[in-house]
Amino acid sequence: MKKTLLTAGLVTVLVAGSAMPTMAISDTASTPLPGTRAKVVVNAWHCNVYADKCSFKTSTKVMKGRKAYNVSKITNTATVKANGWQATLSLSPSGTYVSENTRQVSWTNENTWIADISGIADPGGSLNTSITTCSDGGAFKSGVKAFASACAND
Questions:
Q1: CB-CB contact of 98 with 79 (8 Å)
Q2: pLDDT (tens digit per residue) in 34-49
């Protein structure tokens, strides 16, 4: 009977523990777009807890107050890095190879207010402990430009 109660209690703890919501690691930054009263806002996000793979997302937006503000050209570059001893990284979408543990994915849109990138990071290595996701974004309108960067670190 004691063994049954102990097993039932352990299962309850495991189920309750796995049902807890996970938090994301994120960062945001902004900079004014000269002469427009708008701001370039960049965000970087990735999962907080993962067993094998981790989702990530970066975005560049141009906002005027709380409203979207269209620009001629908007860019977003996501840089994802696996941190740890002998860390390696696979990325989906595959992106551009920077080093064994770092990849970049870029996106450019025209005549709109947003450029988003999302995907799955698959870090590897013998003692891999975390990933870092950075977003570098820029906007161009009527001869002016502005850039901002944000990095989410575990």
A1: yes
A2: 999 999 999 999 987 7
